[in-house]
Design goal:
Radius of gyration: 14 Å
Distance between the termini: 23 Å
Largest sheet: none
Shape: globular
Length: 90
Amino acid sequence: MRRRLTSAASCAIKMRSQEPDVAKAVKKLASDLINGPFHCFGQHEKCSSDFCQTAKEKEQESSTSDDDESQYKQSIGSEDLLSKCLQSMT
């Protein structure tokens, strides 16, 4: 799993370093890095469509099912846990 997380972070850094607007790139990179663990564990609700193929496909479908909504609610709980973990590390 560590390799997947590292690979996702490296890919996000490479992708965002090519953007001309540095301020936007930094914001997008921060979002990508925070979302990385969710992406690696299969929760793609907050993935950027230019970073994640699953998010791109979902964007094209543009339909939300009850299952997607329940997964999103679960990811919010996970995000709170991750946020608390990160805060305790600083």
